[in-house]
Automatic annotation (TrEMBL):
<feature type="compositionally biased region" description="Low complexity">
    <location>
        <begin position="581"/>
        <end position="606"/>
    </location>
</feature>
<feature type="region of interest" description="Disordered">
    <location>
        <begin position="576"/>
        <end position="614"/>
    </location>
</feature>
<dbReference type="Pfam" id="PF03000">
    <property type="entry name" value="NPH3"/>
</dbReference>
<comment type="similarity">
    <text>Belongs to the NPH3 family.</text>
</comment>
<feature type="region of interest" description="Disordered">
    <location>
        <begin position="520"/>
        <end position="555"/>
    </location>
</feature>
<dbReference type="InterPro" id="IPR043454">
    <property type="entry name" value="NPH3/RPT2-like"/>
</dbReference>
<protein>
    <submittedName>
        <fullName>BTB/POZ domain-containing protein NPY1</fullName>
    </submittedName>
</protein>
<dbReference type="InterPro" id="IPR027356">
    <property type="entry name" value="NPH3_dom"/>
</dbReference>
<comment type="pathway">
    <text>Protein modification; protein ubiquitination.</text>
</comment>
<keyword id="KW-0833">Ubl conjugation pathway</keyword>
<dbReference type="Pfam" id="PF00651">
    <property type="entry name" value="BTB"/>
</dbReference>
<feature type="domain" description="NPH3">
    <location>
        <begin position="211"/>
        <end position="484"/>
    </location>
</feature>
<dbReference type="InterPro" id="IPR011333">
    <property type="entry name" value="SKP1/BTB/POZ_sf"/>
</dbReference>
<dbReference type="GO" id="GO:0016567">
    <property type="term" value="P:protein ubiquitination"/>
</dbReference>
<feature type="domain" description="BTB">
    <location>
        <begin position="29"/>
        <end position="97"/>
    </location>
</feature>
<dbReference type="InterPro" id="IPR000210">
    <property type="entry name" value="BTB/POZ_dom"/>
</dbReference>
Length: 614
């Protein structure tokens, strides 16, 4: 908080009983000034040297031979006059945001201008206001609050306007340049850490939020708050969402929570004025306004306090723009006389109708008929459909809700907004339970609005056993469940048939591709090797035959035939390309060993022939 000290002499003002103030001095007082119920016994010379008005009043009092002067309607009262009197005496006086406006108005009343004395009180106060107070965020708010009791002086001296302009200018500044303190209870605590030496300092400091100013100006009364918000919006630099958040913060600060406090005679008029002011300050664009839940709360208050029709209409228009963001609890608006229902069903019906009309008109390429068959991907329609079904579930418990009102609200959203009818079925079931006096025709008509084909398995099972439903509806549920089950079995059979066809086609392909028999002639050297090692070859042949037979037995008959044909091809490729390894030959087939022996035998025979020739 900024302050300014004036004068250097000690303060010698003292009390003498109730309502009497005097200056302790060797000189006797020669003038008495009455401010309200307080008498000041002072001296003419220091006062007349600073105040033009006191000069005229003292001159007039001397002519009338009167030593008393009464200053009527003195701004700021006795405290403000004492500040001016101390300044005239040269005593120490401290100016701060709480008393500077009163001192400024009192100095203006006493005409303490530069004409009376150079460096007079008005000049010094103006320097303090412009150089300190209006440059401080919180001091500007404090000064603006004090101007309320000093009207019209504070308004005529443009103190109110300068305070508002100072506040609005600071709210429009870049948040990254904010260096002064502000109130923000929603701010997340700054994370701290402890260093090795035990010094604690903040890390990861958060940036200043855009709505840093919202809570501080909540201390202003509604008329001053309105002027500040108008000035903030006039700057054109503030995002509409921030303005909406500021209005929400102010409403939460001043509007009472209980219905009794809202409608009480002592506060009803004030609450009504406050609400209508907030509504007129709301941004009108859908993308830059408050949340739909907050707007619906304002609508509840508007109904309770009896706000004018224009304010209610503005709220309804704003809510209908973004009804898809609301929740069921937000729509539970109490009804007023002469309505007999617990909640205002007609109001919700109006909101839904306006929302749907706006959504239909927004897309000019879709006709009314095709709109009813709109694609399910329309997110806002789906949200409103779910919202209406939830609201129907709540009002279905009210015995005073008529069937016509229930059906009208049910039909206010198109069928495309309800891809699943489970919630609608639940609402209808509750309504039938609470309204047992319905005729069979009425029950049939109500249940006919529900599409049993859009019920899930659980809902269908419940509906099939529900005695409150008409027999026709139960039969429809059972019929479509049977169709659904048959379709599931057919789909399973189709998948199995496709799998068998795929296997059959694969086998036919291999049968066409591979030859039936492969006649491979063995070289004589192979037989020679086998004759030279009959025992070894017999063991290998038996081992390979065993492995082959055991592996084939593990395969199905069709797959076994394919395996045999692949095995024959493997023998041919091994005989031609000589790529079989010793390990594979010993563990899979005796043929690979025979081929290996053939290669070795041929090589050794060639070397022997060359040696004999040489």
């Amino acid at each position: 908080m900024k302050f300014m000290k004036l004068g250097s002499k000690p303060d010698t003002f003292q009390d003498q009983g109730k309502g009497v103030r005097y200056v302790s001095s060797e000189l006797a007082s020669d003038v008495t000034i009455i401010i309200g119920e307080v008498k000041f016994y002072l001296h003419k010379f220091p006062l007349l040297s600073k105040s033009n008005r006191l000069q005229r009043l003292v001159s007039k009092a001397n002519e009338e031979d009167s030593g008393e002067m009464q200053l009527v309607d003195f701004p700021g009262g006795p405290k403000a006059f004492e500040i001016c009197a101390k300044f005239c005496y040269g005593m120490t006086v401290t100016l701060n945001p709480y008393n500077v406006v009163a001192a400024r108005c009192a100095a203006e009343y006493l005409e303490m201008t530069e004409d009376a004395d150079r460096g007079n009180l008005i000049f010094k106060i103006e320097v303090f206001l412009n150089s300190s107070v209006f440059r401080s965020w919180k001091d500007s708010i404090i000064v603006l609050q004090t101007t309320k009791s000093l009207l019209p002086w504070s308004e005529d001296l443009k103190v109110v306007g300068r305070c508002i302009d100072s506040i609005a200018s600071k709210t429009s500044m870049d948040p990254s340049t904010i260096t002064w303190s502000y109130t923000y209870n929603r701010k997340v605590a700054v994370s701290d850490r402890i260093t090795e030496v035990g010094v604690k300092f903040p890390v990861n400091l958060e940036s200043v939020p855009k709505d840093w100013w919202a809570e501080d100006i909540c201390e202003l009364e509604i008329d001053l708050y309105k002027r500040v918000m108008i000035a903030v919006k006039a700057k054109g630099r503030m995002d509409g969402n921030v303005i909406g958040e500021a209005l929400r913060t102010y409403a939460m600060r001043w509007l009472p929570d209980s219905i009794e406090a809202l409608v009480s005679e002592a506060h009803s008029r004030r609450n009504k004025s406050l609400l209508e002011t907030i509504i007129c300050l709301l941004p009108s664009d859908k993308g830059v306004t408050c949340s739909c839940g907050f707007l619906l709360k304002l609508l509840k208050v508007a109904i309770l306090v009896g706000a004018d029709d224009s304010s209610r209409e503005d709220l309804i228009r704003s809510i209908s723009l973004k009804l898809d963001e609301a929740s069921v609890n937000d729509l539970l608006i109490p009804s007023r006389s002469p309505q007999t229902t617990v909640y205002d069903v007609e109001l919700v019906k109006c909101l839904v109708d306006r929302f749907m009309a706006r959504e239909r008109s927004r897309d000019k390429n879709i006709s009314a008929k095709s709109t009813n068959d709109f694609v399910l991907g329309h997110g806002s329609w789906l949200k409103v459909g779910k919202l209406v079904d939830g609201y129907l579930t709540e009002i279905a418990r009210d015995p005073n809700v008529s069937l016509s009102s229930f059906i009208e609200l049910l039909q206010s959203v198109p069928d495309s907004a309800r891809p699943i009818h489970d919630a609608l079925y639940g609402a209808i079931d509750i309504y039938l339970q609470e309204h047992s006096s319905l005729t069979k025709a009425e029950k049939k008509h109500l249940c006919g609005l529900m599409d049993v084909r859009k019920l899930t398995m659980d809902a269908s099972m419940h509906a099939a056993q529900n005695e409150r439903l008409p027999l026709r509806t139960v039969v429809q549920v059972l019929f479509f469940e049977q169709i659904r089950a048959a379709a599931g079995v057919q789909a399973l059979n189709n998948r199995n048939s496709n799998a068998l066809d795929s296997t059959r086609k694969t086998e036919e392909y291999w049968q066409k591709t591979l030859p039936e028999k492969h006649n491979v002639s063995k070289p004589s050297s192979v037989m020679k090797v086998k004759d030279e090692n009959p025992q070894k070859n017999m063991k290998l042949v038996k081992k390979g035959s065993k492995n082959r037979s055991s592996g084939a037995q593990l395969l199905p008959s069709r797959s076994r035939r394919i395996f045999d044909k692949l095995f024959v091809v493997g023998k041919v490729s091994g005989n031609v390309e000589n790529r079989s390894s010793e390990t594979s030959g010993s563990s899979h087939s005796p043929t690979s060993m025979i081929i290996k022996g053939e290669i070795k035998s041929s090589g050794s025979s060639s070397r022997n022939r060359r040696h004999s020739i040489s």
